[in-house]
Write a structure and sequence with these properties.
By secondary structure, this protein is an alpha/beta fold. It is about 30% helix and about 15% strand. It has one domain. The chain has a five-stranded mixed beta sheet. A five-stranded mixed beta sheet has the order 4-5-9-8-12. The longest helix has about 50 residues. It is globular and about 90 Å long. The N and C termini lie far apart (about 95 Å). This is Prepilin-type N-terminal cleavage/methylation domain.
């Protein structure tokens, strides 16, 4: 007897394809989540190295946080660790060193500027290539802790001197293990309320919950909205570095719970956009501690 040829029927083939599709639908999100978890861990390592670099700087400068604004190399030679195209002090700003470029203060200790680039983010290339400033890459310095000058070329203009309300020193912290030094943001720094009427201002934490909620859960700050990956790229959260040298991941909703509302913060105004300096004559006030912001 002549043997019959064996092969798949159409139904069998469709069943196999359906099984493969189901398995792919189950496994691909798992793979993506595992990849993001790896990026989160890498980013956490970056955060840890950054804050250790800042603490080494502090130990070398009489326990004072960095906040200067100056021009290096005469504006003609790129900073070590910066692109060769980043030169100038009055635009482009490749040689100007202030809170826009705080990576330079840690660079002598870390010898590595790649730790300033989060693997889950896309940085703004023109800012890096021409100004040596890192926008979008992920790490912001808390200017309410350090203070920030904006004095190069014009020391008397409005808002030039912005001193930290803690005094800009380690001694001004109530609990370094709870106070935030850096966090993942879209800008190079975590903004501050700059309070005063003249050239000398005091920088208070821009901690208002409504402000951060709008940035993290646009457009209206509702936590049921999709999270903004520019602010919370790691499994709906981000990494935070603390003033004692440790770092950890925090879920975005938990972070908001550690921020005072405008009503709990003396009715402070709510910025509608991300910023690094919000000028106001209104003095913040609070009646309960907010340790993440060193508000006691």
């Amino acid at each position: 007897m002549q043997g019959k040829k064996k092969g798949f029927t159409l139904i069998e083939l469709l069943v196999v394809i359906a099984i493969i599709a189901i398995l792919a639908a189950i496994l691909f999100p798992v793979f993506a989540q595992a990849r993001e978890k790896a990026c989160q861990i890498s980013c956490l390592s970056n955060t840890k190295q950054e804050i250790l670099g800042l603490l080494m700087y502090v130990q070398d400068y009489d326990e004072t946080w960095p906040r200067n604004d100056d021009c290096a190399n005469g504006g003609t030679v790129p900073l070590p660790g910066a692109p060769s195209t980043a030169i100038g002090c009055n635009g482009p700003y490749g040689d100007r060193i202030n809170h826009y470029k705080w990576w330079w203060w840690t660079y002598p200790y870390t010898k590595n500027n790649q730790i300033m680039f989060c693997p889950s983010r896309t940085y703004d290339q023109p800012s890096w290539l021409y100004d040596a400033e890192i926008f979008g890459a992920g790490y912001g310095l808390n200017l309410a802790i350090t203070g920030s000058l904006n004095t190069y070329g014009n020391p008397n203009r409005y808002g030039a001197f912005r001193d930290s309300w803690t005094g800009g020193k380690l001694a001004g912290l109530n609990s370094p293990a709870e106070a935030m030094l850096t966090m993942e943001t879209n800008y190079p720094a975590v903004g501050s309320y700059d309070v005063g009427n003249g050239t000398h201002l005091i920088a208070y934490p821009e901690a208002t919950r409504e402000y951060w909620a709008k940035l993290i859960f646009p457009p209206d700050g509702n936590p049921s909205n999709p999270v903004n990956k520019k602010f919370a790229p790691h499994n709906d959260g981000f990494n935070i570095g603390y003033c004692d040298g440790h770092a950890k991941w925090m879920k975005a909703t938990a972070f908001l719970g550690m921020c005072p509302t405008s009503a709990q913060y003396g009715g402070m105004p709510i910025p509608n956009y991300e910023n690094m300096a919000y000028y106001t004559t209104q003095q913040p006030s609070w009646t309960q501690p907010w340790p993440l912001w060193n508000l006691y």
